[in-house]
C-alpha cells in the first residue's frame, strides 16, 4: 500500500478467502462462529497452519509445508519487547507477531484461510463500504484506545447509512520501538470492540516504519455492511419541517483526549464516548423506518456536521442551545480552554433527522436504548437559500453556527 | 455550570435589555467601545447586539492580542525558528496569523521549523528541560493578562539555570493603546474637555466614542486605577466590564447612566475580580523582569511610545532577541486588508473589500480574521447573515451575504 512505498517496510497481508459455500453464503453464521471461536487464546502449537501457508507463499516455497506446525525460538516478549523493523520484513518475526498477537485477538475462519484476499458471498441487499484512517495521540485515553476507535469509527460510518456492518479490514502501520505490550493492548481492544459490534476482521496488513516516522501506531480500517431494501438514509434527504435529534451529550471524546494530552495538566472525569452505534441505529430504524439522515459528528463536532448536512440537503437549520446536551465537565473544560463544545469531536454519538411528526417516536426509541438515553430533539430543518445553521442562544439572542475553520485553537486571554 | 450559567441567564438578560431600552435616550446615539476581543466575542456569540436598542452601537476595540501584533514580529519569529533552528513555543491563536510572503507559523512548521503550540508558559519550560540539546524560545505575546506568567517562566529558568530557554518578548500595555485611540477619537455628541486632543482629533482617522467598556482580565492584574486618565484627560466614562454577556449588558447600562447624568468616571462592574489597585504581586513581578520599551509597533496603530515591555537588563541573557538576532526585513501587510482601521474602530469588518471574499477564517488575510476575539472573525462566524427576526442587521448587505455564500461553497468543494 502507498503508506509503505517510500520507506523501509515489510509487508505481509493477513487475509483469507472463505470456502465457496457455507459461511460465504451466510455471513450470519460466520459471524456467530467468529464470536464463538476466533478470539480465544491461540497458542503457537495449534491452529497456525493458515499463517504458515501464507509465509510459504510469500517465500516462494513449495506448498508442501501446508499444515506443518510452525515453531518459533521463543514466544513474543509481550512484557519488555518492542516492535522492530523485522516485524515488518515478511520473515519469521512478522509471522510470529501475526500468529501470537493478531490472530489471537482477531482470528476468525475468514481471516485464517490464508490467501491474499478474503472471499465471501454478499448477503441479499445493497453493499455499503467506508474507510477511515485512525491517528490519535495519546494511543490510550479514558474510555478507549486507538484499537477500539479504529473499529468504532469505521463501523459507525457504515452504520450511518442504516446498514448492518459485517466485515472490517485493518491495516497497521507500526513505529519501530512501539512496546509490544502496547500493541497487545491495542489489538486486544480492537478484537473486543469488533466482537461487540458483531463484525469480523477478515483481512489485514502490517507495516513497520522507522522510529520517528510514525506516531506509535496508525490503524486504517475499511468496513463492509449490507443495507436491506427499503431503507433510504442519506445526507441530502433533510427537508424543511424535519426534526433534528442527537443521541446524547456532545464533546466527550474531544475533551477526554485533550485532558490526556501530555502538555495539558488537568484531570477530568470525562471518558471518551467511543462506541459502535449499530445496535442503536437498528432500534431507531425499527421504530422509524423513514429516518431521512444519520451522521456521526466526529471531527468538527456537531456544528460542522450540521453544516455539511444543510449544504448537502440545500436547507437551513435552526437549533436551540438549551436543548443541546453537554456535560458540565465538558463545558468547564471548554470554558477553560476557550473552545466551543459544538466543535469538539465525538466518536459515539449520532445526529438523526426525521420527519417532524415522527420525532417523538424516534426520541422515545433512542431513549429506550442505553446508547441513546440522553437523546434530545435540538432543532428543526428550515428553508434557507444560504444553507446556514443558526442557533437560538441560551441568552435569548441568535447567532450563526459556522463551519469549523482550520483547527479549533485555544484563546489567549 | 456554576459561576458561568448565572452570567448567561436569558431572563436576566431580557430584564436588563428592558432597563437599557427604558433608560437610553432616544434622542441621541450611544457609541460604546469594547476594548477587548473577549467582549467582542461575547457580544457576537450570545447575540447581545440583538438585545440593544437601535441607537446603541458597540465599536470594536484593539484588545485582541494576536490582532495587534505587527507582521514584522511574526516574520522575526519565523526567521528565528528557521535560521537559528530553535524550538519556538507559542499559543495556538498565533499559529495561523498571516506573516509576510503568505507565510504563517503553521506554514513555517510545515516547511520544517520546529514550532509547538503550548497552553501555558510552563509547557515551554518543560520543552526546554526535556531537550537540553535544543534551544527553546517562548514566543510571548499578549496584554498584561499573559505577562505575569511569562515573568514567572523567566524567573524559573534563571533559578534552574536553564541555559537553553529564552523569551521573545512581545508583551504590550493596554493603557497606551487606549490613550492612542482616544487621542485620535472624535468626541461624540457632548465632547468632554479633552476630546479634541491628539493627532487625528475629529479627523478622518478618528472614531466617535461616547464611552469605554474597560478590559476585564487585564484589569485583574493592573486594577482600575490606570484608566483614570480616560475621564480626566479625554472626558470619557469607563466601566470595567466582565467577559460574560450579562457583564457586558450591565456595563452598557452603567455607561448609559454616566452619559445621561453627565458623569465621567471609572466605574467597576467586574468587582468580583477587579480592584482599584489590581494584583500587586503580579505587578511587582512584571516590574522586576520587564522594562518599558521606548516604542513598539502595533498593527493598526503604528509605533506607540511606552506601549510595550522588553526583558529587563538583569535578565537580558534570557532575551531571545539578543541571543538569536535575525536580519531585519521589510514586512508588508496584504494589500487591501483593513485590519488597521478595524482595530481602531474606524471601519466595520464588512467595510473591508476582502471580508468574506478572499479573507475568511479558512484563509485569513489579516489577523482580525484569525482569532475568535478578532472583530472580523466574530462578524464572519456569528453575524454575517441574520434572519430577519433577529433584529438590526449587522453588516449583512446583500453583497456580503452572497460573497459569504460563494466562499462557503468553495470551502466545501474540496
UniProtKB/TrEMBL annotation, chain B:
Keywords for the protein's UniProt record, in alphabetical order: Iron, Metal-binding
GO biological process, one term: protein maturation
Taxonomy, superkingdom: Bacteria
One Gene Ontology term of the molecular function aspect: carbon monoxide binding
InterPro entries in the cross-refs: Hyd_form_HypD, HypD_1, HypD_2_sf
Family statement drawn from the similarity comment of this UniProt entry: Belongs to the HypD family.
Protein name in UniProt: Hydrogenase formation protein HypD
Organism: Halochromatium glycolicum
